[in-house]
């Protein structure tokens, strides 16, 4: 039983890391990191408008969080409550990571 729970936690951590990397590498089109000077900050480079970021975030959420939501519903239906709560927690972490990548980095620029 403990081995199964540890495996579920490990799988969830891998999913969170994969999701963060995919959002950062493929879905965050508002990145202009190549324009940063050494010692510069993120506020000195152009950023995409809020409407475009919302569209990008919704596309990323659809493709990356849909499998997690399906897993959550399956675990709830099968009454596997430990894994259900692990996946709900990972969904929250993925949402916070997505918020950070699309809006949080720019919070102190305005």
From TrEMBL:
Transmembrane segments: 12-29, 54-72, 84-103
Annotated Pfam families: DUF2645
Matches recorded under InterPro entries: DUF2645
Keywords: Membrane, Transmembrane, Transmembrane helix
Name recorded for this polypeptide: DUF2645 family protein
Phylogenetic classification of the source organism: Bacteria, Pseudomonadati, Pseudomonadota, Gammaproteobacteria, Enterobacterales
